[in-house]
TrEMBL record, chain A:
Source domain of life: Bacteria
Protein name: Putative oxidoreductase
Keywords for the protein's UniProt record, in alphabetical order: FAD, Flavoprotein
A GO molecular-function annotation: FAD binding
UniProtKB/TrEMBL annotation, chain B:
Gene Ontology CC annotations of this record: membrane
Protein family (similarity comment): Belongs to the short-chain dehydrogenases/reductases (SDR) family.
GO molecular function: oxidoreductase activity
Name of the protein described by the UniProt record: Oxidoreductase, short-chain dehydrogenase/reductase family
Keywords carried by this UniProt record: Oxidoreductase
Species: Roseicyclus elongatus DSM 19469
């Protein structure tokens, strides 16, 4: 038995863990009762925890083929995006979509249908997935795609591992000409201005804003909005053009201890946010940023999840549809700022259209925040749930560890269809997590 | 960086997979050898896909001593580095109660590896260069009630490697003895291993590569094991026999 938790370190559960190294191992595990497959444990909550049986897929981490003409890669589920970048960025290829950490597994990225800063242009991770080899309850493998069993394929994107064990998949990488990103950043005085930056620059591949969630009044929602695109050799200084994929390797810092609870309070959070905002404002303008710093700033601090101490933290991430996003976001940010709790860094992103069976994104704006795991945060998040529901929003399961099932059901009419599909196909008897049980999936 | 080919004997284990990756990442072509090489097709694809190096597969049975010379002669190129990761732990109860099972463990950990490395050593000696890496075990440092059959075989292998190193010291061939300590692999899955003493396969691989580069003789993957085994070896026999280590 192993004590496991997601990246938010809450909840912790004692789980029986089996490591799969071959698909025979997976089939054998499936015969031992309901399980959930787990990648690299980067989902924040209880998505990849099952006390009876958690199937560790990191032992299946082989890359099986790559087409250097088209950037099509076939790899096993346990491969990390970091592995993919290490292997292919030097050859001019980068993941089509990446979340804010490169330490997610391929299987996990598919199961959560992760999104990046380019959702408004490219959609979520699933847009770059051609097919998935899925092992069903009986140990049989089905290759699902948009043409073959499209329904099961659609449900597997964002299906949180509840449609089968993802063994391997074919994905398409993006051709890039360098390891650098051209970044334009803007310090905005309010939330509204940040949204205007997004709306005015929909042609940029990447966009994201860090919001100061502690600022109130006239500064409510002030942000550093950042736009980005892959640099071409012409964007690089002369000296870098001969080796456009070479970036300086940063020394990674490690968070050595769990910070004590008192380290995080309204004053330190306020101070941090203010500092971050002013630093951002000072550095606003055009810069050239290496891929690692641009996409994965937090990866540079190993074990950064210890900032919130032993008790861990909650993540809250919702998406509000375009029409109600401005008023809804305003209310959310106002509510958070007034509570004085919160979040070191809150992230706002623009989503483009996405029509999927179960996965999270939809056209509009998504707001992500973290809170220390305590009762006050829970109470605050109840209010945030309500505001989200009132504005037609929905919630991201890869971040969730505490949502009541009623809230999830109310947010998303697709929930019932997903649960019904699981019941009718017998998937519910084979695949379950603490999260699926909590949410009645 | 690149170099000559690296042969991995016993290539299907999790540890061997990481060793192959580490050398492949440094640009070495890889020769994977194991029984039933069909199981290595995905590993070959992985190494080629990730690192763009050439990988060849070679059928190899550590128990089939008669075939070992032909195996070495049949390799497309004599490797620059050969790593022997062949081994089996068996079940200790069975090893002590069934002499045949015990003998299998001794053959898998000592006889077979010694035989194949012997042939490779001769070929490397003739060439005048090469590195041989034997993966032995801390279990060979002192016999213990709980695993002395396995331990004895590893002790034999350790002694073999040290003798080989001594013999080849002036012939341009270097021999590295690796004592990994506990490693999180399929072999140890389900065992309750202390975290601070348990290495990940990738740690073993990195330790081996740096030992090969810096021509170390005997390495413990986690340095703490050198101290632990020093203490365990120092306990006088009259006391040791009463302990339950």
């Amino acid at each position: 038995m192993t004590n496991l938790s997601g990246w938010g370190r809450f909840p912790v559960a004692e789980c029986r863990v089996i490591r799969a190294r071959t698909q025979t191992d997976v089939a054998r595990a499936l015969s031992q009762g309901p399980l959930i497959a787990r990648g690299n444990g980067r989902a924040y909550g209880d998505s990849a925890l099952n006390p009876d049986l958690t199937l560790d897929m990191r032992g299946m981490d082989r890359m099986l083929s790559f087409d250097a003409e088209t950037g099509v890669l076939v790899a096993e589920a346990g491969v990390l995006l970091a592995d993919i970048i290490a292997a292919f960025l030097p050859r001019g290829w980068f993941p089509g979509v990446t979340p804010g950490t490169k330490f997610v597994s391929l299987g996990g990225a598919i199961a959560a249908d992760v999104h990046g800063k380019n959702h408004h242009v490219d959609g979520a991770f699933g847009s770059f997935v051609d097919w998935i080899d899925l092992m069903g309850p009986d140990g049989r493998i089905t290759r699902v795609s948009r043409d073959h069993q499209p329904e099961l394929f659609g449900y597997t994107l964002g299906g949180m591992g509840l449609t089968g064990v993802i063994l391997r998949a074919q994905i398409r990488l993006r051709a890039v000409q360098s390891g650098w990103i051209v970044q334009d950043s803007y310090a905005t005085r309010t939330l509204e201005e940040a949204i205007d930056v997004f709306e005015d620059h929909l042609d940029w591949l990447y966009s994201v804003a860090w919001i100061d969630c502690a600022a109130q009044g006239a500064h409510l929602g002030r942000s550093i909005a950042m736009l980005g695109r892959h640099a071409t050799p012409e964007d690089l200084p002369e000296a870098r053009r001969s080796a456009p994929f070479q970036v300086k390797r940063k020394r990674s810092l490690t968070m050595p201890i769990d910070l004590p609870g008192f380290a995080l309070n309204r004053y330190t959070v306020h101070a941090f946010n203010t500092l971050y905002y002013h630093l951002g404002a000072w550095k606003a303008g055009r810069t050239l940023v290496d891929w690692d710093s641009y996409f994965y700033p937090l990866d540079a601090i190993r074990d950064w999840n210890r900032i919130y101490g032993k008790r861990g933290f909650f993540q809250f991430q919702c998406v509000l549809p375009t029409d109600s996003a401005r008023t809804g976001l305003h209310q959310l940010v106002q509510c958070i700022a007034a509570s004085g709790q919160g979040s070191f860094l809150s992230v706002l992103k623009r989503f483009g259209a996405q029509d999927s069976r179960f996965s999270f994104p939809q056209a509009g704006y998504t707001l992500a925040l973290d809170f220390p795991a305590n009762d006050r945060s829970l109470a605050l998040m109840k209010t945030l749930d309500r505001i989200t529901l009132d504005h037609g929003g929905r919630f991201y399961l890869a971040k969730d560890s505490r949502m009541p099932s009623e809230v999830f059901a109310e947010a998303d009419p697709r929930t019932e269809a997903f649960a019904a599909m699981r019941r009718e196909t017998g998937l519910d008897a084979a695949f379950a997590s603490l999260q699926s049980q909590r949410l009645g999936l | 960086m690149s170099g000559g080919p690296v042969l991995i004997l016993g290539a299907t284990s999790g540890m061997a997979r990481e060793i192959a990756r580490t050398f492949a990442a440094a640009g070495h072509p890889i020769q994977l050898a194991a029984r039933n090489v069909g199981r290595l097709a995905d590993d070959k694809a992985d190494l080629e896909t990730r690192h763009g190096i050439a990988v060849t597969l070679h059928e190899f049975d550590a128990f089939d001593l008669d075939a070992h010379k032909a195996f070495v002669d049949g390799l497309p190129a004599l490797p620059a580095i050969a790593v022997c990761a062949v081994g089996a732990m068996g079940q200790h109860e069975e090893n002590i109660n069934d002499p045949k099972a015990g003998a299998q463990v001794m053959r898998a950990n000592f006889e077979g590896p010694a035989s194949i490395l012997g042939h490779l050593a001769n070929a490397m000696e003739t060439r005048g260069s090469g590195t041989l890496v034997g993966i032995s075990s801390v279990a060979g440092d002192r016999g213990r009630a709980s695993n002395y059959v396995y331990g004895a075989a590893k002790a034999g292998f350790t002694a073999f490697l040290s003798g080989l190193r001594n013999r080849l010291a002036h012939k341009g061939v270097h021999v590295v003895t690796v004592k990994p300590g506990f490693v999180a692999t399929a072999m140890t899955e389900g065992m309750d291993l202390p975290e601070k003493l348990t290495a990940q396969p990738v740690e073993v691989a990195n330790a081996i590569r740096s030992a090969v580069q810096s021509q170390k003789n005997v390495i413990y993957v986690r340095p703490i094991w050198r101290l632990i085994m020093l203490v365990i070896r120092a306990i006088p026999e009259p006391i040791f026999k009463k302990t339950d280590i």
